[in-house]
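Worked example

This section walks through a single chain of length 437. The input is the sequence exactly as stored; nothing has been trimmed or padded.
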Amino acid sequence: MDTPREPSGDYYDYTRTMQPERPWMLPWHQKYVYRIMHARRGGTGVASADPELAAARPPDHRYVFGDGRIHTLYLTFADALDVIRRVHHLTCGVPQVILLTGWQFEGHDSKYPSWAAVNKHLKRPQDEAALDSLRWLIREARAVNGLATLHINMFDAYEDSPLFDAYAARDILAKDIDGKLIVGNRWWGMDCYHVSYTQEWKHGLAQRRIDDLIAMVPEIQENHCVYIDAFLGARKADQQGPISPYLGYSKQEEARTMRKIFRYWRDRDIDVAGEHVHGIRVDRFVGLQPHTASQMKHIEDLPDTLFCGNPAHFGFTSTDVNEAFLAPFWSQFLPWYNRNNPRYTADGSEYADGDDVFMPVLWCPEPTRVAYSRKGYANRTWQLPKDWERLPSLRLARLTADGAEQPREIPVTNGTVTLHLEPNQAVRLTAAPPGSP
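Given that input, the structure is written out below as tokens.
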């Protein structure tokens, strides 16, 4: 049997072509990427790995071991599908990428570096196992233009993880020069340790983690995307030094391994989106990472087709799709999407000022406009685009979380329409069929 090819760790010089190293599997500059938070783990336990550090913490954050219970349940897998459908209906079917967060063990950040168990609290009653429910959610989301994928982490580790002892024994976890484990950060009241990407790769365990996850949830390969949280190149407390002083791999060496990881995922037809771009990493990984959910100011020099982070990124913790989501979606994301769409032509009839929006929606299969208002208004007149000015009427449908309401016709007067919107309301406008009553 052929030995799998070792991915290169070489730097990719994107400036030669201003294109990704390989074409992205997804058009990220034409996707609405957002997060669904399923659950948060418990963090109050009985022991501390570092008593001195623990003594300096607030009383409710002094322990390393989780309590073995979920701390907060936000959205089950069934609830998540409800959110995805609501977003679909309220946005005229925007192409979605959904980052499923807290899907594993007892919730967000639970038991890394392992990804081996699905959060049992999120299971549907009719399914035999939580994994069945997770895979069901990912498949069902496709029916409403949604690509759901997993929010994972390749840098953090916790003592209650089933992989912790094996990783510590192989010196994969960061240690000081004397061989003592380093507490790198603290999340949810638990000490967090860090993985040396290079050491994990040399033991073949990064590759195993990736392959095992794909085998467990093949839908992420079918959807061609995954999201890696905190994909950093150093510890927060020593951002210029090695992840593990005991091993001594430099930041440049760790970055070389991170490039291998990007390419390993891409060899499996999966794009890796991530949280970070700049600062604690020595490389932005332009041409290897297509999307970021943070630090977008550090990629403003790049075309969105090469590296982007969509505005109005949102995190759902309930099924309520409210003004906090809709206002930035229509006033920020829609203009950004249109500017990145090859069919967009500015004609002077679009308008977005943060409160009121009147713009084309280019992801719709037929010519469509949306009017949205955060505060609402009465009898506001909008100029129509040139190709709509001669129409006698338009069809207007109010967008709701359950779908568009039955459309009604409104007259076109001298190339304009006059609308009345309630607060936080969006309506869809389309051309009325010829000869319609």
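What to look for: The chain has two domains: 14-316, 341-431.
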